[in-house]
Each structure stands twice: as C-alpha cells, then as structure tokens.
Specification:
Layout (H helix, E strand, L loop, with lengths): L10 E7 L7 H12 L3 E7 L5 H11 L3 E4 L13 E2 L1 H6 L4 E5 L2 E5 L2 H10 L8 E5 L3 H12 L3 E6 L2 H8 L5 E4 L11 E4 L24 E4 L8 H8 L3 E3 L1 H17 L5 H11 L3
Parallel strand pairs: 1-2, 1-3, 4-6, 7-8, 7-10, 8-9, 10-11, 11-12
Antiparallel strand pairs: 3-5, 5-6
Helix pairs in contact: 1-9, 4-5, 4-8
C-alpha cells in the first residue's frame, strides 16, 4: 500500500505530544505499513496538556485505531483510558493506546525499547542502573531493568517526583546535581529532555564523570549524537543511541496497533535516513 492508496477504509493512528513536529513516528510507522501492505496511516497531532482530555474524546468519536503517546502525556493519559494492560499498570505510564471496538486500552512498549538494546550488550541481573529523570520513560526504564534483576537509582531535579517513581522498584533517590555519584553505576539511562529541542547541545552529565566500562543509554533519538553520547564515547564508555530504543518500542507498538509483526528493516531504514550522526 502506498500513500496514494489511502481510502475511507484505511485505519488511522496518531502520535500525540507537545512538542510533536520533531517526531519520526509517522515516517517509521507509515514505512512499515507500506512494506507490510496493510491499509493503515499514521499522522502527528500536537496536543498540549490542557487539551489531552478533549483529544481522547476525539479519538473515541472518530474511531482512531491507535495512538503513539509521547511526552508529556505518558502518565496523565492513564486516567483517561478504559483499561491498562498489566505491564502499563505496573509502570504507571502509557506510550501506546489501542482502540478495540470503542474500548481504549493502554500499553507500554517503552520498557522493551530500553531492555532489548541493553540485553544485546550485557545481562541486567545484578547490574547497578542509574535513571536520569522521573517521567514516563523513566518509569518504563526502572520497571524494565528492575524486572531483569538490576538495582535502580533515580536522579531527578524534584525529589517528590523521583520518590513516586522509585516506590515500585525500591530505588534509591538522588538529585541531578549529584552526578558525581554516577561513577558507581554500571548503566546510566538518560530519560530527561536535556539534549533535545532548546536544550540541544547540552548534557545532563558533564565531562569527567563517565568512564570506560559503563553503558550510557540515551533515549533522545534526534539528534542522533547528543552531547551525552559524545561525552560517553570520549570517555570510552559504550553509548547506546536513542534510535535503538525508538525502533524497538515502535516495532512492538506496530504489532499492537495492526496485529502484524513490524517489518524491522523497512522501519529502521527510514529512521537512519532521517537522522544524521
């Protein structure tokens, strides 16, 4: 199926976020739909937090098949849905919504987007994992790594929010100003927005903290090489770029929306073509 063949029978999916113009979800999913030959289309919708309830009412009224949910809506959207699957309920955040006959079901594939790239490098059992940030992606990272036997610490500007995320995993809580403590962790996962948009060129971790032997996971995928990735590589650490998380969570999301296994090669190719090093 090509874009020219979109018809009244096509199923519509949307990615919701604020901001949203940077999102590569439509490009990735539409490439997958074309490759799989299925009548789906994805578009982006800029939804500010105050308008999220109206947006969800619109999803119901218009019969939108599925949603990809990005920041800052991953936690707040939970209360607006009919059901959460067990994993999304345990994480407390949703990045995927499926409209099943008018019933909106929340899922979370972010944790897979983090765990799968990490486990290609190392077993997580017994590892010490530092998660920077305390939003929906941080909740998914903490859940995923903890479920694989890692110990977790949450670094965040706001202690109250960090404690809320830490509760489910018994995680240690530290301030983002305590970055010198990162030296004692095997894995550092950045889920903050530092490094994208207006903060592009900035890093949540200054030079001189990271070391070889550590794995640094950057969840930001645009730009491909953030300041954090460059600092990690200069330190001799293993850097995982955000494109790996984005692709892994997107493949799982694709299957939830369509019932068809996501075409890995086609979806990865469009991302690599769109992103510069």
């Amino acid at each position: 199926m090509t874009a020219a063949e979109v018809t009244a029978r096509s199923s519509l999916c949307l990615v919701l976020g604020d901001p949203i113009s940077h999102s590569l979800s439509p490009a990735m999913h539409n490439a997958g739909y074309r490759d799989a030959g299925i009548p789906f289309i994805m578009a982006a919708s800029h939804v500010v937090p105050a308008s999220l309830p109206d947006a969800i009412r619109g999803v119901r009224a218009l019969g939108v098949r599925g949603l990809a949910v990005t920041m800052p809506h991953k936690v707040e959207i939970c209360a607006l849905l009919d059901h959460l699957d067990p994993v999304a309920a345990a994480i407390g955040a949703v990045n995927t919504v499926v409209n099943s006959g008018g019933v909106l079901i929340g899922h979370n594939t972010d944790w897979e987007g983090i765990v799968r790239p990490l486990e290609r490098r190392t077993p997580l059992q017994g590892k010490r994992v530092a998660v920077l940030g305390a939003g929906g992606a941080a909740q998914a990272a903490a859940y995923g790594c903890f479920s694989r036997g890692a110990s977790i610490a949450i670094f965040n500007r706001t202690a109250q929010r960090a404690h809320a995320v830490a509760k489910a995993t018994g995680a240690e809580v530290l301030s983002l100003s305590d970055v010198a403590e990162l030296k004692r962790f095997d894995i550092v996962i950045n889920t903050t927005s530092i490094g994208m948009g207006e903060a592009s060129g900035e890093s949540p971790v200054p030079p001189g903290i990271l070391a070889s032997g550590q794995i640094i996971f950057e969840t930001i995928y645009h730009p491909s090489s953030t300041a954090l990735v460059k600092i990690a590589e200069q330190a001799g650490a293993t850097a995982i770029r955000g494109i790996e998380m984005f692709l892994a969570q997107g493949l799982a999301q694709f299957e939830l929306h369509t019932g068809v296994k996501g075409p890995h090669a086609a979806m990865e190719a469009v991302l690599r073509n769109a992103l510069t090093p």
